[in-house]
Design a protein that fits this description.
Shape of chain B: globular
Shape of chain A: globular
Strand content of chain B: 15-25%
CATH topology of one domain in chain B: Rossmann fold
Oligomer: heterodimer
Strand content of chain A: 15-25%
Helix content of chain A: 25-40%
Structural class of chain B: alpha/beta
Helix content of chain B: 25-40%
Largest sheet of chain B: 8 strands, mixed
Largest sheet of chain A: 8 strands, mixed
Number of helices of chain A: 11
Number of strands of chain A: 12
CATH superfamily of one domain in chain B: P-loop containing nucleotide triphosphate hydrolases
Largest interface: A-B, 45 and 40 residues
Order of helices and strands of chain B: HHEEEHEEHEHHHEHEHEEHHHEE
């Protein structure tokens, strides 16, 4: 990907939380990029650092306890971490928007949905009230809600409808990047299917790039172009949809696939990943996954594995990573089976 | 999944352990009667797992609570081991409760935060006065901890010190402490991360094999239900719309709702082309439902008869039940 195509580029981002119980190393040395019009899936279990990463992009992490130790986040070539709060305000909602898991987190219960969509529009555009109402109504129709419900309050909508309202708010100013943090986790499957379809349609229509945080590999398979697998604050594998779903190399990525039941295979045995996610304030040395990894050997305990580009654009952070052509980097032992 | 095959054959195993007949539960609300469960018939054979799937508010958890008589039905019979639970008095019911247990979804909410692991697992044993001897009680608790895979050193830990997976193991240990024959598993893995989810599912399968347990497995996650169940019942708005052998229902769902539900599940594979049925609208209100089929408002095959006549759950061919005027073949 050339420099111009990258809409967002995160370089060596490290975010810690300073707490009374010690330093929580939530995100460390994270590198990531999103191209224009692309959908990136950010996958990982609870505590992997997914939400911390995207909240850092939006600069909405509370300081303290959070400390951005190092790194740069380039959005259209400009470092977001160097922006003043005032500058960030003109970016949030206008150029980068975010959708949260629970729609009630982002909706104000005492304002009508119309007022809330109009607020988003009015903050970033100089428009008359009449025009704002018109635009808000149009947005509501776009997400599949009748325009006359503009004067309804959030509680009058069901969960799926509320999430549609939030999407309308997020897209009201036509942002270039939309960040969605588990937007359908709280919804039923048939409603989830509706919302996912809507998001994809709007993404195409508005040519928005999307970062989709999810723990559901099924959703990733359906809507993402690129996938980053996170574990304990780091990206352990990154690549295209095919790289991750057909040629995964990192033991954690493989582990994730083998512990989910398959709707289309009759006798798959679930192989759980042994052990637990490490405590982020007391991370293991070397490779962070070595305590749960069946292929771990002494080097994994001491040294952090490098991120190896095994094929163009496919990165694996493991000593056993094998370039598609050639020998493994870390060891002559060969590729784990 | 060896367990599934072990259970087939043998007269005794074919016997229904639990039978539910015309079960109804209505709740009074300000705006009318809420039909949470509306005329459900089902049976669960000894040693099998019946999966109960459906979306929020379809009444699946209400059924789980009704069959244990944690709430009283408005109408209908619940027959467990040949006895009508509705006719049992309080002390008989208390005896019966030993045999039927429940594991809840949220291990954060279902464990008393002021009790440690020892006290939590001891609670059912003490309530039912199983052991008079303290040493025996202790031995049983350590044995249970081993069965569910909890390390002995955790015996004095409190729930807040445990992660979700371990908490759910405590929940399971409490449920099996009285050596039940039947367990209602109400979304037991929904609150857990996938890698932990697999651990708990494997534990539940192991317990079923070892102790010959019968499960009513309630979940909204179809992949998990498929993995663990022998037969599956699909619910919509308080009624069962389809009930069949697990493999058959997933291979060829016949009710339009089952088809849509199944096709809506995102599948973690990119080598599969599926037709996706996106349902219009949302589940209608269960308060004073209209006559006729409850799925009409969202069904793409809906005809006039569907709006007036309620389809009954009928056996299309042996073991295959569908409540639809026009069951659809093939996807």
């Amino acid at each position: 990907m050339s420099q111009q195509e990258k809409l967002l580029e995160i370089k060596n981002l490290t975010v810690h939380y300073e707490t009374v119980d010690g330093t929580v190393r939530a995100v460390e040395n994270l590198n990531l990029s999103v191209g224009a019009g692309q959908t990136l899936g950010l996958v990982g279990e609870t505590g992997a650092g997914k939400t911390t990463t995207v909240k850092t992009i939006m600069r909405i992490l509370p300081v303290p306890p959070s400390v951005i130790k190092s790194g740069e986040i380039f959005f259209k070539g400009e470092d977001l971490l160097k922006k003043t709060e005032k500058e960030m305000r003109s970016i949030r909602g206008a150029k980068i928007s975010m959708i949260f898991q629970d729609p009630m987190t982002s909706l104000n219960p005492v304002l009508t949905v119309g007022e809330q969509i109009m607020e988003a529009i009015g903050l970033h555009n100089r428009v008359s009230k009449r025009k704002a109402i018109e635009l808000a109504e149009e947005m509501l129709e776009t997400v599949g809600i009748k325009g006359d419900r503009l004067s309804d309050y959030p509680h009058q909508f069901s969960g799926g409808m509320k999430q549609r309202v939030v999407i309308a708010m997020a897209l009201a100013c036509n942002p270039q990047l939309l960040i969605a943090d588990e937007p359908t986790t709280a919804l039923d499957v048939t409603i989830q299917a509706q919302v996912l379809e809507l998001m994809q349609r709007l993404k195409r229509q508005y040519k928005t790039s999307l970062i989709m945080i999810t723990h559901d590999l099924g959703i990733v398979a359906e809507i993402c172009d690129y996938v980053a697998i996170m574990y304990a604050g780091q990206i352990v594998e990154y690549g295209s949809l095919e790289d991750i779903f057909l040629h995964a190399q990192h033991p954690y990525t493989k582990g994730l696939f083998s512990c989910i039941p398959d709707l289309y295979s009759d006798d798959k045995e679930l192989i759980p990943i042994p052990g637990l996610m490490p405590d982020p304030s007391n991370l293991p040395s070397g490779c962070r996954f070595h305590t749960r990894c069946q292929y771990s050997f002494d080097r994994c305990e001491i040294q952090e594995p490098p991120s190896v580009e095994v094929s163009p654009g496919h990165h694996v952070k493991c000593f056993f990573a094998v370039p598609e052509k050639g020998e493994p980097q870390g060891t002559p032992l060969g590729r784990p089976v | 999944m060896e367990g599934r095959y072990d259970k087939e054959g043998g007269e005794d195993l074919k016997m229904a352990l639990l039978e539910v007949k015309n079960l109804k539960k209505y709740f009074k609300t300000k705006s009318g009667l809420l039909h949470a469960v509306d005329g459900v018939d089902l049976h669960i054979n000894k040693g099998e797992t019946l999966g109960l799937v459906g979306e929020s508010g379809c009444g699946k958890s209400t059924i789980g609570r009704l069959v244990l008589r944690l709430i009283e039905p408005t109408e209908g019979e619940i027959i467990f081991e040949g006895k009508d639970l509705g006719k049992l008095n309080k002390s008989e019911m208390r005896q019966m409760r030993r045999k039927m247990q429940i594991v809840f979804q949220d291990p954060y909410a279902s464990l008393d935060p002021r009790k440690n692991v020892f006290e939590l697992i001891a609670e059912p044993l003490i309530v039912q006065r199983i052991y008079s001897n303290k040493r025996e009680l202790e031995r049983r608790i350590y044995e249970l901890m081993e069965i569910v895979g909890l390390a002995q050193r955790l015996v004095n830990s409190y729930p807040h010190e445990l992660d979700g997976g371990r908490r759910q193991r405590v929940g399971v240990a409490r449920a099996i402490a009285l050596r039940p024959v039947f367990m209602v598993l109400d979304e037991p893995v929904s609150a857990l991360d996938v890698s932990i989810q697999a651990q708990i599912i494997n534990l539940l399968l192991k317990l079923q094999r070892e102790f010959g347990l019968t499960y009513l497995f309630i979940s909204h996650d179809l992949s998990v239900v498929k993995h663990i169940s022998d037969r599956v019942a699909v619910m919509y708005l308080g009624q069962i719309v389809e009930l069949a052998d697990c493999k058959e229902i997933f291979k060829e769902p016949l009710h339009p709702y089952s088809q849509a539900l199944l096709s809506a599940v995102p599948v973690p594979r990119i080598d599969l082309k599926r037709e996706k049925i996106i349902l219009e609208g949302e589940v209608p209100s269960p308060i004073n439902p209209k006559p006729g089929c409850r799925f009409t408002s969202r069904c793409r095959y809906c005809q006039d008869i569907c709006k007036t006549e309620t389809p009954v759950l009928r056996e299309i061919y042996p073991g295959r039940f569908v409540a639809c005027h026009f069951p659809q073949k093939g996807q």
